[in-house]
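Q: I'm writing up a methods section and want to include an example of the input and output format. Could you take the sequence below and give the corresponding predicted structure tokens, formatted cleanly so I can copy it straight into the document?
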Amino acid sequence: MPSTNALRVVLVAFALLAAGWAAARAQDDRPLRLARADAAPSVVAARQPIRGTVDVPLDGGSLSLAELEDIALRRNPGLARASAEVDAARGHWLQVGLRPNPTVGYLGEEIGNEDSAGMHGAFASQEFVRGGKLALNRRVAGQQLRKAEYRLESQRFRVLTDVRGAYYEVLAAQRGLELSAELARVADEASDTAQQVFEGRQTSRFEPLQARIEARQSGILLQTAKNRHAAAWRSLAAVLGEPDMPPARLVGDLNDSLPEYDFEDSLTNLLAQSPQLAAAWTDVERARWAIERASAEPVPNVQVQATVAFDTASDDTWAGVQVGLPLPLHDRNQGEIAKSVAELRAAEANVNRLQLWLYERLAAAFERYDNARYQANVYAASILPDAQDALNLANLGYTEEELDYLSVLTAQRQYTQTNLAYLDALREVRASAVKINGLLLSGSLEENE
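A: Here is the clean output for your methods example:
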């Protein structure tokens, strides 16, 4: 039977283990709860893409911008990847704050000594992490989680910017195709008419030749418009995550409610709302917590082991306790602390660099926006009305036999080309406005840091 003294030693040993567990919990639970609150998922989590099948219109159907955005947010692979990275960061945050597992095992000594069965027993050991290291681990990992969430938000802006930009590209190409088709139709009719007049010997060979040249040039313009529309649609389909999606007619008008932006207001909004800049600030916070974590590393962890065994030779039960901890005499984590301090300086410098980079990109986007908006306003106010008047006068002159049909065709071509130039200006206004509104984030299918 176990002796009373041995039982007392065993009780003391396990009491030490229990006290160590309680102390570790008291030391780490409050910081862990704080870290858990700090690292809680932000509003980004509510914007994670919903995976599933997508019903798209067949040929002859129509799509609005809102419908395209909904498809892209569900199907764009870049969003799925960024969402998975958030999940991975959340798993890492959970893991680094977990306490070490206890160790239990069997103990056998002096087996066969003097023909005895020896001593047999069991042991239990536990490492107690001190210095708040587990809480600090989660502080560091919490900032990495926040950065992953901001990267998901950045990807969401990229997807929406790309969809909106591609939408306006297709919308412009759609209208350009209509204008080019009308010009080609008129030019073909003019070429046929000029040939018939020539065959009736009512004119020279010059007019049918000129009409044929106009018709062929209009045909080239029409084919270019078809190619442009096809390319714009394929680009849109790729961003949607549906490369095999059949072309559909887009609902909308490039002229509707042209946006107006002020540079200073846009800059203030950009610096306040940019998820790229927010992610850079998380690097600063992560580096600050990393300094604290590196500084806590020299605080030694305590290793406690309790053993109880029965000696078959003497019929005695005995117990033992071991408590150990490393002495930080030489390695006080000096190098890691210096590294973390340097990383903090680098992260702060990167925030400054990113602010200047965003300022530079916004300035370039505003140049495009201001130029395109000015051009669109001039076209709408004077150039398009003049082109329309010129076409009306040419038609009237032809009706009254003051002008030949080539003059009408030239006026028609000028009218069409003017409208196409106006379309380009509108497309550029929309493209630059989408970039500004999207916080300069685009390229959802590119490899982004």
